[in-house]
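One-letter codes give the sequence; the integers encode the fold. A sample entry reads:
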Amino acid sequence: MKRSERLVDLTNYLLENPYKLLQLGFFVARYESSKSTISEDLEIVREVFKQRGIGILETFPGAAGGLTYRPATTTEVSRQMAGELRQLMLEENRILPGGYIYLSDILGHPDTLRKIGRIIAHEYEETRVDAVMTIATKGVPIAQAVSEILNVPFAVVRRDPKVTEGAMINVNYMSGSSAKIENMTVSKRAFSVGQRVLIVDDFMKGGGTLNGMKALVEELNCRVAGVSVFVEGPFHGERPIVDYRSVLRVDHIALESHTIDVQLGNIFEEKLF
């Protein structure tokens, strides 16, 4: 195999197997090449990934060592993608009767979903995440996008139990926007005890749904790795959840003019250490 062909195949393999510990010997056998040749190839890929903000190749020395590809983007690229998503939110006819925001076109397009997934995954790339949780239905594509980048499974919480899910865990929670008691449920098989779960959703108003999912994580004897939403909507009142991250933030919805004020979310706020 020519080096150009080998580099293409090697790059594709790394992209399809993020966060896996890969042995150098595996690639030596795969391409029937020497360790020095494969090491040179990996260095080329490492530099390109770094320059383009694609990800990081980490090397671990020793007999049990190897290398791991970790998807990663830069904060600058992440902010640029969020800016592109913001422009989509400002398009005409985005406001529906009743002040609802139409998001189905954004959440139904692979390119925009990939951007949302990369932005959220970037926020938690230094955090241990074992699984992703969301609630049906519009949170599902976001959870899938994030879980694909982090290479971890995701599970869907429902408001009505399904017989096909087997034994379920249920919690009651207070809806932050309507102040009503709601119910949500998830399969007991969805997560393993002790896992760190990242909670994601498409839209947050009062925060009650996200708080309910946090309660579910605790009922499953797991830990919350983080809470993140695509859009944080305007809300006048005290939310039951404060430790969340948002990609975009809607400050105001003008029903008369059918316009909204959209800003980048708190993911992009300067962190003080």
About this structure: The helical segments are 3-16, 24-31, 35-52, 75-89, 104-107, 110-123, 139-150, 208-219.
